[in-house]
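worker-03 picked up job from queue 'complexes'. Input manifest follows; two sequence lines, order preserved.
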Amino acid sequence: MDKAQLDQIIEKHRGDAGNLIHVLMEIQHENHWLPRDVLHQVADALEIPFSRVMRIATMYKTFSLTPKGRNEVHVCNGISCHLRGGKQVMEAVERVTGVKAGETDANWRFSLAAGACLGTCSLGPEVIVNGKHHARMTPAKVEEVLKEYP
Amino acid sequence: MTRLSSAAELEQLRAQILSSRDSAKPCIAVCAGAACHGLDSLQVANAFQAEVGKLGPAAPVEVRVTGCHGYCEKGPNVVINPQEICYLEVKPEDVPEIVERTLKGEVVERLVYAHPDTGEKAVHMKDVPFYKHQTRLLIGDNTRIDPMRIDDYLAVGGYAALAKALFEMTPDQIVDEVKKANLRGRGGGGFPAGQKWETAKSAAGDEKYVIVNGHEGEPGAFMDRALFTGNPHKVLEGLIIGAFAIGSHQGYIYTRHDSPQLVKHIEQALAQAREYGLLGENILGSGFDFDVELHFDVGIFVSGESSALMRSIEGLPPEPRPKYIRTSVAGIRDKPSNLNNVETWANVPQIIERGADWYASIGTAGSKGTKLVSLSGNVRDSGVVEVPMGTPLRTIVYDIGGGVAGGKAAKAVHFGGPMGGSIPASMIDAPLDFDELAKLGAPIGAGGLLVMDEDTDMVEVARYFLEWLTTESCGKCVPCREGMWQTMKVLENITKGKGRNGDIERLQDLNEVTGAACLCALGKTAADPLKSMLRYFKDEYETQIGRGSEVKGGEVVGSAAK
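worker-03 finished. Artifact:
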């Protein structure tokens, strides 16, 4: 994400402390993580203490304070996926990617997240990679699916 | 688009839209609800558009990309209107055949519903078992509406209730009608909406807010998204009527950030409503001003709690506050703020249009109208279901859902996600009713119904729910933060074969404290699944704890070795 684009998002909300969550969400969607210097810039623009920005940035699971890998893998751990074998799928994803939920591998290929629930329970257990749903997964299918994401 | 400045102009526009459409012309509705979308239904939609496009601008058939039809298990769904021919699991390669046969007035037999056991086929929606037993007052329009086009909503009678409310009723009459209909909140508590409206209406001050809670953070619940994504104007119309009744000029929609379609459809609905003068200043020339802002949850369950949600709208961390003063008296920026769930708001237009008496004729003595249910878990046909209140759970699970998946037996039915409860399958004749199910220990909650089969480990389910909630609590109050954690640890030990004598009492003690001392409903009801399980499945807990005594010197031995 280039600096001009970032500035544009922040400028839109200048002086509006009530839009803190909104600004961070927009930056996260575009940039996939929240660098510290950007958070300082947000604090200055919205005229609020840096600590308040950090409090919001660390509270929500969507916000990441570390860079993400090329591919964001989301394994649903909602109850419906869980009942249909989501845990075994997660174990297989952990094995194939070599990382645990919340981590990114050394080659920046995968960032793994566990989360509930995207409301597509009929497709469970689900693995979502870069927004693309892979429905009715089994541990055996994991390797083949992740191969598509170099 | 022209701005409408009276009820008559709205009706003129509606007549114009209807006269420009041929109601007999086949319309291919392709579902782009969350599940079908996940199954690449947009490729199917594109294939239809390309195929119909070949027929030129005067094609005798049209294509409409719609919201959720309901039968998620068999997606991508395609429905041919007006006959409501139902095609299931449609692939792009099926498209040319469907178009060709539709033009000839024929049916593609191989794509219609076939009963998995008997092979008996059903062509029309009204004959497909999944739909046959439903009463789809709220979600039924989804197959007729492209959520990106307000004209589609007007074509099915949209915003007529708003015109009636603005020009034929006083705010008091509207509140009375909603009270008389006995509309109860669909978000979890089942609190009477009319009573809440009245509190906000009579609260002091001129500045008041109305809020749509579209957070739907509970895992296994997806009906609000289906409704809101598929028919955003229905919710918006209810909200505007509520705002007029309460005397609010500013509304907020609080919803999920992680569903791009949902966000797109709501933004479009707001923009189109503004262009038509259904939102903004002087709505329909009535002199009533009202507008709506959109806010998002970015990933924590507690922010769906009403007072936490309101903090979040202010840009503050979503932490609940004690509610000895209701949010309908002091909510956002301490102004009266009336919050209702998506489904509650969506019920309002039909109550105004068809009257409280009609509405109250549906359902049971204490629970009126229909209820949307997200049916999932170990069930054969999962999806979004709408049935009248009072419908036996058996009808939902067996007649609509086709029973338990994989030919297994049902063990339990769970309502309300991590703050709900499980009842044994033997109680499956219980009616879908706020009070009846709460008495049994499985309150409806928002309407997420999970079927659990005979292989389900009930200790593990309780542990799972608590583990999930510990990461979704805000951590502000100690009983919630620590109580849930300790409860989860006890359960974890039991599932690992490290249960100890007295664990059940320890769990009951913890349940009592969290239930009484937590600040908000998240903590207060976090132990509810566990309580229901200790009520109905205690022997399973005792057996697993008993296994713990076989553990010697930290080594798991015998049957406890998993």
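worker-03 released lock.
Chain A has a mean pLDDT of 93.
The CA atoms of residues 40 and 50 of chain A lie 6 Å apart.
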